[in-house]
Amino acid sequence: MTEPNDLSAFWMPFTDNRGFKANPRMLVAAKDMHYTSASGQQVLDATGGLWCVNAGHSRPRIVEAIRAIVGQLDYAPTFQLGHPLAFEAASQLALLMPQGLDRIFFANSGSEAVDSALKIALAYQRARGQGSRTRLIGRERGYHGVGFGGISVGGIVGNRRQFGTLLTGVDHMRHTHDLARNAFARGMPQHGAELADDLERIVALHGADTIAAVIVEPVAGSTGVLIPPVGYLQRLREICDRHDILLIFDEVITAFGRVGRATAAERFGVTPDIITLAKGLTNAAVPMGAVAVRREVHDTIVGNAAPGIELFHGYTYSAHPLAATAAIATMEVYREEGLFEHAIELEDYWADAVHSLKGVRHVIDCRNIGLIGGIELEPRPGAPTKRAMEVFHRAFDDGLLVRVTGDIIALSPPLILEKSHIDEIFGKLANLLPTID
Ligand SMILES: Cc1ncc(COP(=O)(O)O)c(C=O)c1O
User: Fold this and answer.
1) What is the DSSP string of 54-88?
2) Which of 40, 64, 291, 337 is most buried as measured by Cβ atoms within 10 A of its Cβ?
3) Domain of 393: which CATH number?
């Protein structure tokens, strides 16, 4: 029997359930830059929740918009029906995307956005008479959520090995992480543009006419903040163009100001054919994912279809009214408060703070771009990930929420942060790290 407040029923995602339930750390409230823990402690959020609360927590404008709509239109289907907020959210979002990516498909999470994007890529190739292009290419150390499509193109063994054979016809390029050449690079690392040529190897192996799309995170987050080397994304774009392969950027964490612009595509000056989005789209107040699609890709699928439904794909909650409202309000907050510009203004100060940890005990690399920081620690001999996990727990107890992945501390604070918060984050880490074995 489950008792009230019994912790056993909730099977927690991506969690050491036994460890957590033996020593739970609960969050009960959130406002602006802080969580409040169950013990009443204020915890500075250096991770924007899970890279998703870009505008800060519980922002009144977003909260009020959601409250208002739930009493007016709690739910409306978007299969063969519509509601105005869905169209407005799509139009507003299209304005933030690189030019030409102005057709928007809605989902409910990053994982669903990724699977939708992969399906759109396959449907496009078929619609334009290139139905032999069925292969999907990802990259080692890529994270694209947890759907079967996402884990198939993803490159994290731990997320794949429990789940059988996954999608067929998937291959992976090499990742770009190279501590030997790029350790402590500030911003984009200088070395590694040539790693994009690994796509040529895959094309040579399988034939371009079997490849539908390539998907990469412009900045890989979940595998520890891997910043693209100078010229790498441009080269990937060129190779895709040469072989007529669609390029998908998974911008679930990089969009909405994280790198100081609406998208990493804009920041890095490389325009993909499809962008996947989620997280900061609604400031995480209501789950939502989206796929921004180049108009020609959309028009090919829709225009070439027989009369009737053009794409046999969608979710009960695609463009849910609460999510659509939250997205519109969130985009207003970004615009009116100039949060993307604020991120750019703070980028140098942030970079200095990230790199101030060079020389601190255990630190073997510091990486930064926009308001993203990665601090790589030397793994404890024979016990990889344990040192970083201890940092996570000890920092939390000290009033600081960081995220750890492997032995890397990943930082992605809400974009409303000020210099004093940056000082606090890195001051606490500089004090904490030397005390950890
Ligand atoms: C790049 C990327 N893609 C997809 C996802 C999956 O998003 P969700 O957890 O909303 O399904 C994430 C989540 O962290 C992500 O970082």
Assistant:
1) TT-BT-HHHHHHHHHHHTT-S----SS---HHHHH
2) 291
3) 3.90.1150.10
